[in-house]
């Protein structure tokens, strides 16, 4: 008996416990909420054209705003040398500058708070052995991603401070590529925090009743639900890609053209000559005309976003209909998954309504901000649905180990 127990697989390591503390889960979820907030506020910073008001990157000394009129004059002088001031705001007063400066300053301070409030507790939890070994690695990875996000933020802003990075005489703006990279990294940070926080809580819930967990796993692993499980994963990727295409729309101000729906001008799409214009090609043989128009032509970028958004909506409704019309899926699907599916349907309907309204009303600040928040909320609902649908490999191992120990316990007592 002792040999069999020694030969059974062990998940516990020498330093880390086999499961992470619930306090780690609550901290991760709190961090995710903070990232959600800064993403929405970052959108407001862009919509109010405040992002280029601070022309330097000072991670330490820039933590404090100007403290007197002399400091304000110095900051305003730096801003007056920027392309945005020269081309867009040549008549801006100091008081007007202060309002956009504080928007960008709050955004940067919030970013520092996200970093510090993640890094310090991460060190504590790992040092105090409050996390499992796999979770410790994930937390270190998220910390690195936060640091990379800070670098991307300044790299993005820097693209709007040099007029050689955009067409002469055009609206000064940051690179849509850099903006989308910055947005995408924020989404990844948020998703990682949300997913891992929920995973820890789910792990504790499953381990509280290993027999019920085993029955749930057998149900979720059923071949009947294979299509549903894979569809949820594909849906998460689709929602993320749609949100990133929205970043390109924002970076190019593509939402300010073709402000009707479902038509774009005289038809469902603009003319082909407009969608694939030679103007955006940078090579003599026009070999880059396809991808450059897809990423730099506002007309095609908006059309792509419409197509992706419509595909997302159709996919969600189609998957929901599948769970209703298929008797075997309807019977096998756990109640928690059904509720999660309903949540995804609700959020996708809300997001479509916000997107169309934002377009029709020429991108007003409240609607545009709500639309950006809606994209992250929709992704959250899909991630939550995935957490209820996919079988967590590590949790399944722990549950199996717990059941093995419970079976061995009586024989040990006899010996």
The SSE string, one letter per element, is HHHHHHHHHHHHHHHH
Strand content: under 5%
The best one-word shape is globular
What is the helix fraction of residues, given as a range?
over 70%
Find the structural class using helix and strand composition. mainly alpha
Q: How far from one another are the termini?
A: 9 Å
Q: Largest sheet, if any?
A: none
Count every beta strand, where a strand is a DSSP E run of 2 or more residues. Answer: 0
The radius of gyration over CA amounts to 25 Å
Mean pLDDT: 92
What is the overall number of helices? 16
Low-confidence stretches: 1-13, 411-415
Give an overview in words.
The protein has 415 residues and is mainly alpha-helical. 72% of the residues lie in helices and 0% in strands. It is globular, with a radius of gyration of 25 Å.
Layout of secondary structure:
Blueprint: H1 2-7, H2 22-47, H3 69-80, H4 83-87, H5 94-127, H6 133-159, H7 176-208, H8 210-220, H9 226-251, H10 272-275, H11 289-296, H12 298-325, H13 327-332, H14 335-360, H15 365-389, H16 393-414
Helix pairs in contact: 2-5, 2-7, 2-15, 5-6, 6-7, 7-9, 7-15, 8-16, 9-12, 9-15, 11-12, 12-14, 14-15
What's the short story on this structure?
The protein has about 425 residues and is mainly α. The protein contains 16 helices and no strands. About 70% of the residues lie in helices and about 0% in strands.
Record keyword descriptors for this entry.
415 residues; disordered C terminus; mainly alpha; globular; disordered N terminus; 0% strand; 16 helices
């Amino acid at each position: 008996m002792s040999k069999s127990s020694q030969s059974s697989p062990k998940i516990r390591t020498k330093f880390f416990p086999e499961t992470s503390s619930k306090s780690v889960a609550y901290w991760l979820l709190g961090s995710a909420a903070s990232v959600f907030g800064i993403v929405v506020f970052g959108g407001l910073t862009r919509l109010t054209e405040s992002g280029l008001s601070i022309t330097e990157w000072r991670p330490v000394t820039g933590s404090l705003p100007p403290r007197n009129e002399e400091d304000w004059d110095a900051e305003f002088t730096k801003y007056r040398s920027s392309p945005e001031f020269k081309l867009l705001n040549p008549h801006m007063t100091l008081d007007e500058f202060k309002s956009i400066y504080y928007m960008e300053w709050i955004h940067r301070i919030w970013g520092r708070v996200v970093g510090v409030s993640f890094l310090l507790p991460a060190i504590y939890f790992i040092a105090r052995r409050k996390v499992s070994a796999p979770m410790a690695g994930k937390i270190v990875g998220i910390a690195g991603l936060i640091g990379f996000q800070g670098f991307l933020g300044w790299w993005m802003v820097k693209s709007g401070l040099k007029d050689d990075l955009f067409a002469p005489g055009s609206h000064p703006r940051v690179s849509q590529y850099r903006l989308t990279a910055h947005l995408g990294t924020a989404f990844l940070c948020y998703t990682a925090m949300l997913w891992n926080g929920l995973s820890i809580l789910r792990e504790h819930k499953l381990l509280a009743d290993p027999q019920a967990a085993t029955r749930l796993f057998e149900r979720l692993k059923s071949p009947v639900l294979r299509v549903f499980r894979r569809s949820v994963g594909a849906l998460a990727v689709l929602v993320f890609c749609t949100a990133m295409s929205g970043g390109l729309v924002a970076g190019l101000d593509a939402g300010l053209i073709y402000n009707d729906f479902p038509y774009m001008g005289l038809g469902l799409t603009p003319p082909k000559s407009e969608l694939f214009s030679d103007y955006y090609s940078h090579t003599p043989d026009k070999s880059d005309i396809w991808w450059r128009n897809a990423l730099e032509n506002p007309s095609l970028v908006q059309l792509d976003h419409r197509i992706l958004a419509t595909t997302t909506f159709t996919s969600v409704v189609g998957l929901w209909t599948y769970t209703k019309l298929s008797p075997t899926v309807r019977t096998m699907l756990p109640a928690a998954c059904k509720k999660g599916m309903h949540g995804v349907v609700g959020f996708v309907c809300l997001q479509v309504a916000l997107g169309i309204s934002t377009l029709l009303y020429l991108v007003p600040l409240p609607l545009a901000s709500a639309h950006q928040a809606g994209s992250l909320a929709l992704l959250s609902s899909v991630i939550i649905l995935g957490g209820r649908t996919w079988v967590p490999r590590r949790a399944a191992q722990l549950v199996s180990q717990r059941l093995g120990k419970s079976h061995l316990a009586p024989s040990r007592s006899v010996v």
